[in-house]
Amino acid sequence: MAVPDHPKESMLYLLKALMTIQWASPIVPLRFLSLLGAYAQGEYPYQFVGVDNNNSLYGCANQFVTEIDSLAGTILNDLLSKIKAYGDQNQIKKQARLSLELFFAILNWGDIHDMGNLAVNLWNFSYKNLERKLAERTFESVQFKSRTNPAFEMLLSRMPLP
User: Fold this and answer.
1) Which of 10, 122, 129, 143 could form a disulfide with 99 if both were Cys (CB 3.0 to 4.6 A apart)?
2) Which of 151, 34, 1 minimizes the C-alpha distance to 101?
3) Any residues with CB less than 8 A from the CB of 44 and at least 6 apart, and which?
4) What angle, 0 to 180 degrees and rounded to 10, lies between the N-to-C axes of helices 92-109 and 27-39?
5) 75-97 pLDDT per residue, tens
6) 126-134 long-range contacts, CB within 8 A, separation 24+
7) Could you tell me the pTM of the whole model?
């Protein structure tokens, strides 16, 4: 979402407004996590001529990073509740799929050092309940990332083979 904050509103006001909507699919809040991960980057991959992006307005200022962490924590807790609710409703395929999607979000945007246990737990549940081919491709992507990042190597060592 390439929309800078309005100078007269609070940080991330548009995203906060979107978070108040009860979305029919948990995929939308999951995409918000990815968006927050992108916002946490020191420099955005896009620029618009004549428009100050949030990274130029806030950069990695502590208040901005704290706000991102707070919103991400709220979304994460909501998604974990949804995963649990799917289990309570015996919707195992939906539960496994959302677990895998959240696993990917953590791999792409999360801090593996801080969120490694959660990532492994999500993987352990999802890989048992997904198509074998998808589980294999996922495992291979973590193997690939482990070649350049020791945190992924540690994560990989805790992931059972599909």
Assistant:
1) 122
2) 34
3) 38, 53, 54, 55
4) 10
5) 999 999 999 999 999 999 999 99
6) 126/96, 126/97, 126/99, 126/100, 127/100, 127/159, 127/160, 127/162, 128/96, 129/92, 129/93, 129/95, 129/96, 130/96, 130/97, 130/100, 132/162, 134/100
7) 0.83
Quick one: which of 36, 56, 60, 58 has its CA closest to 48?
56
- What percent of the chain lies above the pLDDT cut of 90? 37
